[in-house]
Specification:
Number of domains: 1
CATH architecture: 3-Layer(aba) Sandwich
Strand order of the largest sheet: 7-6-10-1-11-14-4-15
Number of strands: 20
CATH class: Alpha Beta
Strand content: 5-15%
Distance between the termini: 44 Å
């Protein structure tokens, strides 16, 4: 581990040994060692190690008004909007998604996701399993999120944090990454992988609220300021009895790569304008704004070497008990979603990043086939539509088919564990062989049962 004096009055003098300057310390209360993580990265398999961007849609989006329209159903099922053809013959999306329809060759859609539960929590989307209740039978320490597992197994890459939460802090706690469970104020994230594998979290207020395992931006700035004294301490670093991984860990703390990756002003104004500015969502939803700049930030982060980035976009709990009917909400929010996501995928593709970056876009469940008397759709965990792209995923495909009202799978249900197996494989982790150990010492496979990657997406 590495200790770097944190106070502004810290001095380097003959009273402090060179060895003591570099030998002890931790990044978190749980005792994280970046050197250990770097060793883990060096010991990882040399195969493909891609990145994943998980786009969470708080509240659960409607499948009918997005990727699974039912134009032949009754009005109370089909809603107010018609289908439009995509760039793939025979496939249609909702007419409010023209940009994604034109970009369908870049991504595929799963229309028959199963295995989710009726809970307004991001936990299931980030972990692949329900948690927080006795009936969930979680292992000792609780289930870890996908990004935490990737952080533990692969560690940092290119001297930058392996797992970053780019989402704003949302007022409804269970929507947040590292949030709470419904009816509880206990934060269960990151599960049994421990505090050393929490994401580098970016709150909605910007860089002043940056945290990396307990180190805030001012403290990180203090450490970065030590670079001004490198001429004085360089000899100490070279002479100290430390290994190459400890030197790399020191570099992560002082290089400023994370701050540079997060600095959107380094992007040309034309690129920032291309992504757009978005809009807030009604505060009563407790969700996230529609901020396309999150996607630009995600692109910069994976470009810099982050392995897993989480993004939260919008507020999708469209019962019609807040702000208006599903017709009104669709007209207001879907065009921004359509433009922002299509721009993100196009940008990744143009830069060659889509080949190594898997993007998944989903909420905690779908919505009811029947529009309720108020003009909204209610919770529906039996099926939902999921967008998935990149990292070897074949574009232009639709996996599964729902019944005539979009309520249940009738062809090729896809379990959520299959999706996670796909994500792990695209990161270079074998979900059939790799295991992680809970706090009682019991090993667990990364996915349950005999679930494997969604083969239809990869061949």
């Amino acid at each position: 581990m590495i200790t770097i004096p944190s106070g502004s009055n810290a001095r380097f003098c003959d009273g402090r040994s060179r060895r003591n300057f570099l030998q002890a310390g931790a990044l978190a209360a749980g005792g994280v060692s970046l050197a250990d993580l770097l060793r883990a990265e060096a010991g990882a398999s040399s195969g493909k190690q891609g990145s994943v961007v998980m786009v969470y849609l708080p509240g659960g989006p409607t499948q009918h008004e997005t990727f699974d329209p039912k134009p032949d159903a009754n009005a109370e099922i089909r809603g107010s909007f018609g289908p439009i053809p995509t760039s793939i013959p025979g496939t249609h999306f909702c007419e409010l998604l023209p940009n994604l329809a034109r970009s369908h060759k870049r991504f595929s859609v799963i229309r028959t996701l199963t295995g989710m539960v009726n809970r307004h929590e991001s936990f299931h989307c980030y972990t692949g399993r329900p948690g927080g209740r006795p009936e969930d039978n979680e292992p000792a320490g609780g289930w870890p999120g996908f990004g935490s597992v990737v952080s533990q197994l692969l560690g940092p890459r290119n001297g930058i944090a392996p797992y970053v939460d780019a989402a704003p802090k949302m007022s409804y706690g269970p929507y947040n990454n590292r949030g709470t469970h419904i009816g509880s104020d206990k934060v269960s994230w990151p599960g049994f992988t421990g505090p050393k594998h929490v994401p580098f979290a970016i709150s909605g207020k910007g860089k002043a609220d940056l945290t990396l395992n307990g180190i805030d931006l001012p403290r990180l700035g203090d450490r970065r300021g030590l670079l001004q004294n490198l001429e004085q301490i360089g000899e100490a670093v070279e002479d100290a009895e430390i290994d190459e991984y400890q030197k790399q860990a020191f570099g992560i703390l002082t290089s400023g790569k994370m701050a540079q990756a997060m600095d959107l002003t380094r992007e040309p104004q034309a690129v920032r304008d291309r992504y757009g500015t978005g809009q807030p969502t009604d505060a009563s939803f407790g969700g996230a704004p529609q901020d396309p700049q999150q996607f630009l930030l995600a692109r910069r982060l994976v470009e810099a070497g982050v392995r897993c980035v989480t993004v939260a976009f919008g507020a999708w709990d469209w019962h019609a008990n807040r702000e208006g009917t599903i017709e009104k909400l669709s007209k207001k929010y879907l065009p921004v979603f359509d433009a922002a996501l299509a721009t993100f995928l196009e940008d990744l593709d143009e830069r060659g990043l889509l080949e190594t970056t898997t993007v998944i876009v989903w909420g905690e469940f779908g919505r009811t086939p029947k529009i309720n008397p108020k003009g909204g759709r209610d919770h529906w965990p039996k099926t939902q539509s999921v967008l998935i792209a990149g990292g070897g995923i074949q574009g232009g495909r639709v996996i599964g088919e729902t019944d005539s009202v979009g309520g249940e799978p009738v062809e090729r249900p896809v379990h959520v564990q299959e999706v996670f197996a796909t994500l792990y494989q695209n990161c270079g982790i074998d979900p059939k062989t790799e295991m992680v150990t809970d706090l009682s010492g019991r090993p667990h496979f990364l996915v349950d049962g005999n679930y494997g990657p969604v083969s239809e997406l990869l061949s």
